[in-house]
Amino acid sequence: MPDTMTPEQRSHIMSCIHSNDTKPEVLVRSYLFRLGFRFRKHDRRLPGKPDVVLPRYRTVIFINGCFWHAHEGCANYRLPRTNTEWWRQKLARNVARDQSHREELTRQGWHVITIWECELTRARRAETLAGLARRIVAGGNAPPPRGLAQE
Ligand SMILES: [Zn+2]
Questions:
Q1: Total number of domains in the chain
Q2: Which of 6, 47, 111, 129 could be stapled to 101 by a disulfide with Cβ–Cβ 3.0 to 4.6 Å?
Q3: Is the pLDDT of residue 18 over 90?
């Protein structure tokens, strides 16, 4: 880690890497920003208000909670035992909405990447984030950002 950082910056980065309760979105954005990616957040002009929008790479990223977006086959996605049918329908609507947002974005020429909360646990985060950076660059016509080119 370079010595040019302030203690605050250092501690912020360390907490992103080591903390378990950092919000998934913050984790992803901090990582991308450090690599030199520049992006918009929650762009309301786009279907589904994507969490991260990278115009240079024509890529949008959704960072999905496993429960609310019904991550199929994931241990974090279990229907509640009470009001099960109500929950099933509610979450099915979320899934359908996600699907239509992805389709509309694809029609508009965006690459759509979905990251699940369970892919950002301490154990899996490093691999997930590295893979994400590669996918962003692979999808666009722009060169990789400075931080990635140096890796
Ligand atoms: Zn999951």
A1: 1
A2: 47
A3: no
